[in-house]
Design goal:
By secondary structure, the protein is mainly alpha-helical. It has a domain at about 1-75. It is about 40% helix and about 5% strand. The protein is built from 5 helices and 2 strands. The protein has a two-stranded parallel ribbon with strand order 1-2.
Length: about 160
């Protein structure tokens, strides 16, 4: 799941997390983020008496999710995210000109649908991300909140 926003802030981060939790059919156990102010207090303010918990962390805690932070100034720690961001940029803004943000949003949604439901990945043994999730669901259904087959795009969506 990806979202195009004008400005990344705390509210956008926790709203995205809430939408993500509704959208994915499986239970998320760990989230790894960078140390941006939308995800964590600045290092100098962490673990102080007056610091209050961030809403992002409160949502993680309420859903049994461990929120981990990468080491500051080490973007390679979150390599999968960095690589996916590059893949998205290469397929959209580096390849096409958009007259509006709405045009980019539509193309991004189309790209993600094609990626998730049609692109076969070597790391998933030639399966699409959707096929892989369905395969895991058949072998480990207790890891899921709902049947992922119901999320297949088609005539009923």
């Amino acid at each position: 799941m990806a979202q195009l926003v004008e400005k990344a802030n705390r509210k956008i981060a926790w709203e995205f997390l809430e939408v993500l939790l509704e959208a994915v059919p499986y239970r998320i156990h760990t989230i790894l983020t960078d140390n941006g102010i939308q995800f964590a207090e600045q290092p100098r303010n962490r673990n102080k008496i007056y610091s209050r918990p961030m809403r992002f962390d409160m949502i993680c805690q309420a859903n049994g999710i461990e929120h981990r932070l990468t080491k500051p100034n080490h973007p390679w720690t979150n390599g999968q995210v960095e690589r996916m961001n590059r893949t998205i940029k290469d397929a959209t803004v580096k390849r096409y000109h958009y007259d509006s943000h709405e045009q980019l949003r539509c193309h991004l949604a189309d790209f993600l649908d094609a990626y998730n439901y049609a692109r076969r990945l070597k790391t998933l043994n030639g399966l699409t991300p959707y096929e892989y999730i369905c395969k895991i669901w058949t072998s480990e259904p207790d890891r899921f909140n709902l049947n992922p087959i119901h999320q297949m795009p088609g005539l009923n969506t």
